[in-house]
């Protein structure tokens, strides 16, 4: 995931001084941690929703989920920030039965 986030200038450090390189890597670490937290919260919400709908979710499958997935990251495009649900602070989960622009 860090390689995808750190895509500028061919994923190479270009600061001449060690302090500048440490700043670049520190910033990358913050972004990777934020993405990991985001993914963890939404994986938990998705599993909880499946269980609430009566879908069987095995613990051994949940144990294999990883918050390091990054196929959904849009590192070069436009961003939109929809209103979050007041009860959970999360945006609504995507309905897999509904076709979206991302699926096209």
Defining key terms:
104 residues; mainly alpha; elongated
Account of the protein in words:
With 104 residues, the chain is an all-alpha fold. It has a domain at 16-69. It is built from 3 helices and no strands.
Task: Briefly characterize the structure.
By secondary structure, the protein is an all-alpha fold. The chain has a domain at 16-69.
Q: What portion of residues is helical?
A: 40-55%
What is the terminal separation in angstroms?
24 Å
Average pLDDT, rounded to a whole number, is 79
Global morphology: elongated
Largest sheet: none
Poorly predicted runs are: none
> Rg to the nearest angstrom?
17 Å
- Note the total helix count: 3
Sheet-strand content, in percent, reads under 5%
Quantity of strands, as a count: 0
Helix-and-strand structural type: mainly alpha
How do the helices and strands follow one another from N- to C-terminus? HHH
List strands and helices in order, with pairings.
Layout: H1 2-5, H2 18-52, H3 59-63
């Amino acid at each position: 995931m860090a390689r995808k986030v750190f895509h500028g200038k061919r994923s190479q450090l270009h600061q001449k001084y060690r302090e500048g390189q440490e700043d670049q890597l520190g910033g990358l670490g913050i972004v990777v941690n934020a993405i990991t937290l985001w993914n963890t919260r939404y994986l938990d919400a998705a599993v909880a929703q499946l269980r609430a709908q009566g879908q069987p979710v095995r613990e051994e499958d949940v144990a294999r989920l990883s918050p390091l997935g990054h196929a959904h990251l849009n590192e070069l495009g436009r961003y939109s920030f929809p209103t979050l649900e007041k009860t959970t602070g999360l945006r609504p989960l995507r309905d897999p039965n509904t076709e979206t622009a991302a699926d096209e």
